[in-house]
Amino acid sequence: MPPTLARLSAALVLLATSALAAATPTVLTLSADKPGPVINRNIYGQFSEHLGRCIYDGIWVGKDSPIPNTNGYSNEVLAALRDLHVPLLRWPGGCFADDYHWRDGIGPMDKRPSLYNANWGGVVENNHFGTHEFLDLCEMLGIEPYVCVNVGSGTVQEAKEWVEYMTSDATSPMANLRRANGRDKPWKVHFLAIGNEAWGCGGSMTPEFYADNFRRYNTYIRNYAARPEDAVYRVACGASGNDYQWTETLMKRVGQQMNGISLHSYTIPSGQWKTKGSATEFGIPQYYETLSQTLQMEEYVTRHSAIMDKYDPAKKVGLCVDEWGIWTDVEKGTNPAFLYQQNSMRDAILAALNLHIFQEHADRVVMANIAQMVNVLQAMLLTDKAKVVRTPTYHVFEMLSVHQGATALPVALSTPYLPAQTDVKIPNVSASASRDSAGRIHLSLVNTDAEHPVEVSCTVQGAALRQPTGRVLTADAVNAHNTFEAPDAVSPKAFSGATVSGNLLKIELPAMSVVVLEL
Hints:
By secondary structure, the protein is α/β, with parallel strands linked by helices. It is 27% helix and 24% strand.
């Protein structure tokens, strides 16, 4: 077929497919009388690594900084994090964790040795942000700390003593050292990761070798908490993406000794690590390709969960997706090792889709940590000295935070797939629902179509409807984003596109939008 005719034929097929999708209704049934599992609030967890400007010049500016701060923490960042209701924060890495020796980050700041950050840019940092600074931040904001111990280059004794330093109230060497450094009572540190990415930067281990190391470290990490519910929750280093053999090996060998197992999966727009694609310079075809790639998370969670079910049918072990998000090329003119990237409307859609996937698997997924919180990868916040920008992803996390700790409600969704030519089919609409402790029902919806609105017909069973209230996040372009000059270009607005008739709810979703309704 001549090239011109081939292009015409492809265009006609796409047009016909688009027309068919537009003619196919999106129908949703929400069963308010059939409660499911509780959505663990830690699915909305964050990640802060000593990488680029996440910690220094992000969260921590120092007590002597001209930037307004509280004991060294940026006031603007603190305010934004309070509004976000962050439930859980992972630290100090990431790859950095397996090069980090915690004793270097305690005691008087002027006596702390500097550290060469071999993983991220070869910069030298002063260790001013250490154990006390991290745990005090979590305590100040009501965040659960999630600490990753050094298995790659550390020792069992080092890990054992760190746990004692943080959590023991005994008259013991490590607890007394903590007291000498200004903290009398122990902190509550419930979540502990036994290493990070042991298959890669955390030691290039085989799953068998890591399983033996997990068993060894696990033996010496002891519980000092007074209450059983505060005992150490031990997270084993799990797989990357579709490495199902890693999960199989760990569950078989040490599944009975862990509380959780991690999973890491990043969305790379181009599908190529070397040139990942721009955070803002892309069009609608690239938007759909990125969504197609991120939806692979559904397969990863499903298949890793199935392996876990084989060895743990009672679902005692939680799946912790403690690194996820979009990874693009860095912004021009920035240090390539600092992983500073912009954040667009596309990324907000991507975040909402992943949060829906985690909530759909709330019986197994107990934690997720987007990478990362400030100035790195798919960040919640971007900073420039005292200025702070809340990204589109920040707004999605804030809007959907109504699901944190709520009871999942089943949704039966019939929606067409978009005509985008991608490897994984993209549903026109994604939906998730929950009932909170006050009895309020919330429904979150995503319209993935970049160009067309969609009407959703929603029948609610087992609850009386009233006129819903809600908010919408949308933009006029897939690459729309917030800047320091225009920080509110993409921000939530009041939503008025829902009408009620009996138990039927009609919802008009704008193109490329995230909507959260209170029913």
